[in-house]
Design brief:
Length: 291
C-alpha cells in the first residue's frame, strides 16, 4: 500500500516540477524526459542484470509494432500534460485522470468484450453527463481532459497486450522514441534555441532530473501493484488527480466557478459509485468460499 501510495503521490506532485520548466517548450521537455528516462532505466536494468528480455522482443515484429504504438500514445500523453501544466490547466488535467478509470472500463467493453455491470453503466453515464455539462457551460469540449484520459486508456490497452513488465516496457518505449528525441535536441541546440544552449544551470539540472522522476514512481507502482489487490489499487489511484486538483485550485488559483464545479461533482459521483461497487464486489469475492 505504501509503495503504491508513494507512486501516486509523486505523480500528483508533478505539476510542481513541470511548472518550474515553464520557460522550456513542452516538446523539448518531452524530448529530455524521453532521453534521460532511457539513461536511468538502462542503468537500473544493468545493475539488476535484466537484459535477457530485450533479444526476443527485438525479434518479434508484432510486439515491436505494439510497443511503438504504446510509445506514441505515451509521448502524446506526456506532451499534452506538460503543455496543460505550463499553460495553467492543471485542474482540467486532473479531470482527465479522474475519468481515466471509467475510460478503461469502456475500452475493455469495446475491445476486450468485457461485460459491464449495471452499476458500471451508471457510473459511465454520470461521467458522460459531467463532460457534457462542462462542454455546455464552458462552450468547448474539455479536450485536455479527454485527450489525457483516452491516450492513457489506449496506452494501458496496448500495454495489456504487450506482456512486458513496467520497467522493461518503459525501456523499450523510450528506446524507440530516443533517436527522434536526440535528433530534435541536437537540432535545437545547434540552432541555439534549446535549454541546453541558452538555459541556466538550474534549468538544465531540472531537465536531467526527468529520468529518475519518471522511472522511480513507476518502480514504486510496480512494487505496490504486486502486493495489493486490484480493488485497493483502484482506490489509491485517486490520490494523484486529487493532489493535482488541489494544487490547481489552491496553489495556482485556477478558476473553479459554480457551473464548472457542478461538472466535477457529477464525475466525482460517478467515481464514488464505481469505486463503491468495486469495493463491495471485492469484499464479497473475498468472503466467498473457495471451490
Amino acid at each position: 500500500m505504501l509503495f503504491a501510495a508513494l507512486a501516486y503521490i509523486a505523480w500528483g506532485l508533478f505539476p510542481l516540477y513541470f511548472k518550474r520548466l515553464s520557460g522550456v517548450d513542452a516538446l523539448e521537455v518531452i524530448a529530455h524526459r524521453t532521453v534521460w528516462s532511457l539513461v536511468f532505466v538502462a542503468i537500473v536494468l544493468a545493475v539488476l542484470r535484466r537484459w535477457a528480455w530485450l533479444g526476443p522482443v527485438l525479434r518479434s515484429p508484432k510486439l515491436l509494432a505494439t510497443c511503438t504504438l504504446s510509445a506514441l500514445l505515451l509521448s502524446s500523453n506526456w506532451l499534452v500534460y506538460v503543455w496543460a501544466v505550463q499553460h495553467g490547466h492543471v485542474v482540467e488535467a486532473s479531470l482527465g485522470y479522474f475519468i481515466n478509470p471509467l475510460v478503461n472500463v469502456m475500452l475493455g467493453f469495446v475491445f476486450l468484450r468485457e461485460r459491464l455491470r449495471p452499476v458500471q453503466w451508471l457510473a459511465i453515464g454520470l461521467a458522460a453527463a459531467g463532460v457534457i455539462w462542462l462542454t455546455v457551460t464552458a462552450g468547448r469540449l474539455p479536450w485536455i481532459a479527454l485527450v489525457l484520459a483516452l491516450s492513457f486508456g489506449f496506452y494501458g490497452l496496448m500495454r495489456k497486450t504487450a506482456h512486458l513488465g513496467a520497467l522493461e516496457g518503459l525501456t523499450l518505449e523510450t528506446l524507440i522514441l530516443s533517436p527522434f528525441a536526440v535528433a530534435a535536441l541536437v537540432w535545437w541546440t545547434a540552432q541555439g534555441t534549446s535549454a541546453l544552449a541558452q538555459g541556466d544551470a538550474s534549468q538544465v539540472g531540472l531537465l536531467l532530473m526527468a529520468g529518475p522522476l519518471t522511472a522511480v514512481p513507476l518502480l514504486l507502482f510496480a512494487a505496490g501493484a504486486r502486493r495489493i489487490t486490484l480493488t485497493t489499487l483502484g482506490l489509491v489511484q485517486y490520490l494523484s488527480p486529487t493532489i493535482q486538483f488541489l494544487l490547481g485550485v489552491w496553489l495556482y488559483h485556477e478558476p473553479l466557478a459554480g457551473a464548472r464545479l457542478m461538472g466535477f461533482v457529477l464525475i466525482w459521483s460517478a467515481l464514488i459509485v464505481y469505486s463503491a461497487e468495486s469495493l463491495w464486489r471485492g469484499r464479497r469475492a473475498a468472503r466467498s468460499p473457495s471451490p
